[in-house]
Amino acid sequence: MRRRKTYIILILILFLAVIAGLFDYPKKIPHFPNVPFKMGLDLQGGTHLIYSIDLSNVNPKDVDSTLQGLRDVMERRVNLFGVKEPLVQIEKKQGNPRLIIELAGVQDVSQAIKMIGETPVLDFREERPKEETDKILAVKEKVKGKKWDEIQKIPDWQLAFEDPYFKESSPPLTGKYLKGAKMDFNQTTYEPVVILNFDKEGTKIFDELTKKNVGKKLAIYIDNILISAPVVREEISSGSAQISGKFTVKEAKKLAENLNAGALPAPIKLIAQETVGPSLGKISLEKSLKAGAFGFLAVILFMIFFYRFPGFLASVALIFYIIFTLAIFKAASVTLTLAGIAGFILSIGMAVDANVLIFSRMREELKKGESLSIAISEGFKRAWPSIRDGNVTTLIIALILFSLGSGFVKGFGFTLSLGILVSMFSAVFVTKTFLEVFIGTKLEKYRKIWG
C-alpha cells in the first residue's frame, strides 16, 4: 500500500514536471500557451527615469494620498505610451520623495519624457444631450475602416474624434479649483463615499454646473481618462460635494487619491536619466545564465561525489526545482532582473543545503545498521528542524528586502522568497519521494551507493 502511494506521488511529480517544462519551453508544441518571460530593464534594455516631486504646496496630511495618486496617474500615462509592463514607483528618501519610472524596451525616449513630465490634468465634463451622442456615434460608425483622405470627405468628420458621451463643462471646472478630496462614510448607510471640497471660485462654478445638470451625470477625467461619472442629485452651493456609488473602501480611497493627484500642486522634474541598450542587456543575461549553469553543474558534481546515489537523486530533484520555479515565474509574470536571477540562483543553494542536512543524517543512520527505510525516515525527521529554521530565517530577511527595499533589491527579495518556498518543497517532498521508490528494491542491498 505504501509503495503504491509512493508510485502515485512519483507519477504526479513527473506529470507536473512535464507540464511545467512544456510551459517553460513550449517550442513547436501546438495549442500550448507560449508565455514569454518578463524581462526587466537591465536585461531587455530601455530607459530609467528619476523625477523629483515638489510637495511644498501640499498639506502634510495629504502627502501620502497625493503620492499614491500621482503614481497611479503616471502608470496610466506610461501605459498609454505603449510600454509593456512599465515599472512606476514612489521612493521616499530622507523626506525627498522621488518618482522612478522604468520603460523596458522603449524606443522614443524623448517622447516618453515629454508625456511623463507633465502634472496630471483633472477636469469635469457635462453629459451630452442624446441627440449629440447619437450624431457623434453615427459619424464614428461611418469612418470605421476608412482611409484619412476618405474620412475628410464625410460630413462633420471631426465629430469622430470627440467623446460621444461627455463634453467640456461650461464654465470650465478643472483641478485647480479643487482644494482636495477624501474618503468618508455616509452617516445613514455607512457606505464609503468620496468628499470633494472646492475653493471660493470653484464653489461658484460647481454651483452653476450642478444647477443645470440635476439628474444628469457630471464626469470626472484625469489625463482624458474617465475615472468617475456620478449623477447630480441636487444643486450644490456649499462648495462641498459627495460622490457615492456602492464603493468598497479600497475603491473610494483610490478615487480620492486620483482626484488629489489631479487637484493638488505636485509638479515633477526630471533629475536623472539612464539608458540601457538591448545589446548590453542581452550580454548581461547571457553572462548571468552562463554563471548559473556553471554553478549548477558544480553543485551536481559535489552532490554526486560526496553523497553518491542520493546525491544523484537530489540533483534530479534540483532540475525539477528549476523547472517548477521558472514555470511559476512565467505564470506569475515575475519581472526577471539580474538581481532577481541572483536571488533565484541563491535559492538553488538553499535547496542543496537542505539535501546536505538530510543525507548527512541518513548516513549516520545507515552506519548504525538501520534499513534504508528507517534511514530515510529518520534522516528527514531529524534534519527537518534545521531545514525549517534555516529557510524561515532567510525567508524573513528576503521578505524584509522585498517590503522595505526598492528597484533591484525588491526583485532580489521576491525571487529569493519564491525560490526558498519551492526549494523546501523540492528538498523535502520530491527528493524524499525519489528515495522511497528504491525501498525494498535490489539497489537497497548495495549499501555503499547510499553513503
Q: How many H/I helical runs?
A: 12
Calculate the mean pLDDT score and round it: 81
| Top CATH class of the largest domain | Mainly Alpha
Terminal-residue CA separation = 27 Å
Classify the beta-strand content into a percent band.
15-25%
So what's the overall shape?
elongated
| CATH A-level architecture of the largest domain | Up-down Bundle
The gyration radius over C-alpha positions equals: 30 Å
- What percent of residues adopt helix (DSSP H or I)? 40-55%
The major β-sheet equals: 4 strands, antiparallel
Strand order of the largest sheet: 3-4-2-12
Instruction: State the domain count.
Output: 2
Assembly classification:
single chain
Give the SSE layout.
Elements: H1 2-24, E1 38-39, H2 41-44, E2 46-53, H3 63-81, E3 87-91, E4 98-104, H4 109-116, E5 122-127, H5 130-143, H6 148-151, E6 166-174, E7 178-185, E8 192-198, H7 200-212, E9 218-222, E10 225-228, E11 240-243, H8 249-263, E12 268-276, H9 278-331, E13 335-336, H10 338-367, H11 372-404, H12 408-436
Parallel strand pairs: 1-13
Antiparallel strand pairs: 2-4, 2-12, 3-4, 5-6, 5-9, 7-8, 8-11, 9-10
Helix pairs in contact: 1-9, 1-12, 3-8, 9-10, 9-12, 10-11, 10-12, 11-12
Structure write-up:
The strands form 4 sheets. The protein has a 4-stranded antiparallel beta sheet with strand order 3-4-2-12. It has a 4-stranded antiparallel beta sheet with strand order 6-5-9-10. The chain is built from 12 helices and 13 strands. The longest helix is centred in the C-terminal third of the chain and has 54 residues, at 278-331. It has helices at 2-24, 41-44, 63-81, 109-116, 130-143, 148-151, 200-212, 249-263, 278-331, 338-367, 372-404, 408-436; strands at residues 38-39, 46-53, 87-91, 98-104, 122-127, 166-174, 178-185, 192-198, 218-222, 225-228, 240-243, 268-276, 335-336. The protein starts with a helix and ends in a 15-residue tail after the last helix. The chain is α+β, with helices and mostly antiparallel strands and 451 residues long. Strand 3 (87-91) and strand 4 (98-104) form a beta hairpin. Helix 1 (2-24) packs antiparallel against helix 9 (278-331).
